[in-house]
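Protocol step 4 of 6: structure prediction from sequence.
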Amino acid sequence: MQDSSALLAGLQQKLEALEQQQLLRRRRVVDTPQSPQLTADGRALLAFCSNDYLGLAADPRVVEALCEGAARYGAGSGASHLISGHSAAHAALEDRLAALMAPCLPQARALVFSTGYLANLAVLSALAGKDAEIFSEELNHASLIDGARLARSTLRVYLHRDLDRLEALLAASAAPDKLVVTDSVFSMDGDIAPLRELLALCERHRAWLVVDDAHGFGVLGDRGLGALEHLGLSSPQLVYMGTLGKAAGVAGAFVAAHATVIEWLVQRARPYIYTTAAPPAVAHALLTSLDIIVGSEGRERRAQLGRLIVRLRERLALRHWRLLPSDTGIQPVVIGDNGATVAAGSALLGRGFWVGAIRPPTVPAGSARLRITLSAAHTPAQVDALAAAVVEIEQAFARESSS
């Protein structure tokens, strides 16, 4: 008992240290469907912190498809994909995704995962190994960082968008297998990786280009097929990961690549092989999401999101805080100090706006920020109200600090 008390006391001290640094995270309980107007902890809020970029999470057609899928396939899959858990719904979703991504990925095939985190762990641990070298963007998502660790490869990190440094690293590498790994849309900054230049480097140096398009799929491109479509890229050296719980509004993720790459993942990707398949009803619902995304309605929703992005940026006339350059639904306002960022988030909450207050280790020390995320489901009036509140709070903070 004494040893247990010491263990718990040690953890408690670490938690108290996080709180002193304004780094303690707290959950809020949402008891309504995801939408700009929701209820969290029993309070009505206007949310600007969701990744539901197209407003599909509560779309009645997607909800109906989810119910239909549950009625047809049951609540769970019952096993891993390689035992008995691979349903007709999973197969149909993979076939649909492969067909959609075919213009960007020669001989395309797709593989669905329960989460984007699992998908990234699977790709890096299966394609790389102890003799490989992984070249990772410094602002990559945690799942890519952890995937590189799991691969046990030599890891080289290059600075954000530093193509010259990456080219030097690739030229110096004698590894038989090389992987360049990057987010497409950087989740905390909102800018887009120079994928065209990265692919050229990979083709020159015989390397895979692994693209995490979590915040691009559904949003970028004429048909919403993500960063590769947006930039007109196509290559058998591309390995593409798209999530299905953000713009697609449901859950899960997929990897699309040349059929040989996907077959290798089926045979060797431990995070795919040794986990229960996602409920087939989820895959069934996603077929409806995809129909909306690639159709005329999806195009209009993307256009509406674009108009709201421009509107917000025009109205965020900040003098002390810094709005980062971004043409995506992620609009970060860098404040810097952890405490000030938490206070700004609390002040917005007090006015009925829910905006994420992002602090280290999610972002580098000294760059804590408000992470505003927009959805096509927001209205211009809601965006105007948020912008006015952020500007007023910034000015109030400036007056307090100067007095």
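Step 5 (inspection) to follow. The first strand starts at residue 37 and ends at 40.
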